[in-house]
Amino acid sequence: MTDVIGHKFLNAQLIADQFAAKGYFVVMPDLFNGDTVPLNRPEGFNIMDWVKNHMPLQTEPIIDAVLDEMRENLGCKRIGGVGYCFGGKYVCRYLKPGKLDVGFTAHPTMVEPDELKGIKGPLSIAAAGEFTYI
């Protein structure tokens, strides 16, 4: 599950390709119905205004449809979720029986304490504690 730049971002595709090259079946859904954040944000772009249109109410039906397709029609028995930044929230929300079986997230954002408490499977988190500028 991608960050706000979305599934068409070349870097996201390269990461997905690396998983696929290792033999994994990879699905990278468009979590934003085409309304991604530009890589080079224009002056005055307000990310919080954008986020208002991409809350769980809008995002979860997309993820639910993908997981249902994977389990019911593609026969996936175990599904691991990988989420970056925005997508990390949904790895945490979906790490429970019948959804995701295992998860990894790098620098997750907007994860709520109750979402962490609801996790029912193994999760690895790569998070930065401090930034140092050189």
Task: Provide a short characterization of the protein structure.
By secondary structure, this protein is of the alpha/beta class.
Overview of the molecule:
37% of the residues lie in helices and 10% in strands. The chain has 134 residues and is of the alpha/beta class. Strands 1-2-3 form a three-stranded parallel sheet, covered by helices on one side. The termini are far apart. Helix 5 links the parallel strand 2 and strand 3 (123-126).
What portion of residues belong to β-strands?
5-15%
Query: How many separate helices?
Result: 5
> Spans of 5+ residues with little confidence (pLDDT < 50)?
none
Judging from the principal axes of the Cα atoms, what is the shape? globular
- Average pLDDT metric: 94
Q: Quickly give the structural class.
A: alpha/beta
User: Going across the major beta sheet, what is the strand order?
Assistant: 1-2-3
Biggest sheet character: 3 strands, parallel
Please write the string of helix (H) and strand (E) elements: HHHEHEHE
Distance between the termini: 31 Å
The radius of gyration computed from the alpha-carbon positions, rounded to a whole number of angstroms, is 15 Å
The overall strand count is 3
Helix content: 25-40%
